[in-house]
Specification:
Helix 3 packs across helix 7. This protein is 77% helix and 0% strand. By secondary structure, the protein is mostly helical.
Length: 218
């Protein structure tokens, strides 16, 4: 188990990393602005669940095998790029229908099965977005072991603890982004023209992220 001092320092570094502009927090910001803060929080939850997979891969030694395989890296990054391109296509084609967007895809109490299905869809988007980004896995492989000390017990257990701390920091920072972006987006959603513009901007950003991921190197 890492020391308390190590965990506190690691939490601070993780929070700063979560604040650094990147594909995940940009994704949260746009989805929250388009669909509301509840949908954004669902995306945040999905992204954090994806981090569970990356952490487990590092703890079990699978990440090192993956990092050594250029084929695996290439296949995964193109899967992620294709998913982002699909989201971009959907955003660029989305109409600006009156009154249907402020909480589109978000679950609210009493909304029934359709809302729950929308929430699960947004969680799924976060999971896929995170797991199909091979750079996250390569980053975890290099980052997490730096804060683990063999003298303090099993490395795999320490890596899992560090991964959980990283998820907590990510959830708090991304959750704040989702809430603020959702509140601002709610104002934009009152105008059909602003909603249409937001959809187009989101589509272009998703497309840019897809191109960035497709050309990423290890």
């Amino acid at each position: 188990m890492p020391s308390i001092e190590t965990l506190v320092a690691f939490f601070g570094v993780s929070a700063l990393l979560a604040l650094t502009p990147g594909p995940d927090n940009i994704f949260v910001l746009l989805q929250s602005a388009q669909r509301g803060w509840r949908a954004g929080m669902c995306v945040v939850l999905g992204l954090c669940l994806g981090l569970v997979g990356h952490t487990a891969a590092v703890a079990l030694g699978l990440a090192a095998v993956f990092a050594a395989s250029s084929l695996a890296f290439t296949v995964l990054k193109f899967c992620g790029a294709a998913y982002l391109a699909w989201l971009a296509w959907g955003a660029l084609r989305a109409p600006a229908g009156a009154g249907d967007a402020p909480a589109q895809g978000a679950a609210a109490p009493g909304d029934g099965p359709a809302a729950r299905g929308g929430a699960l869809r947004m969680v799924g988007r976060g999971v896929v977005m995170n797991l199909t980004n091979p750079k996250v896995l390569v980053f975890f492989l290099a980052f997490l072991p730096q804060f683990a000390d063999p003298a303090r017990g099993a490395m795999a257990r320490q890596v899992m603890v560090l991964g959980l701390v990283f998820m907590l920091a990510t959830f708090l920072v991304f959750g704040a982004v989702a809430c603020f972006s959702g509140a601002f987006g709610a104002l934009l959603q009152r105008s059909a023209r602003a909603r249409l513009l937001l959809n187009r901007v989101a589509g272009l950003v998703f497309l840019g992220l897809a191109l960035r991921l497709a050309t990423a190197q290890r």
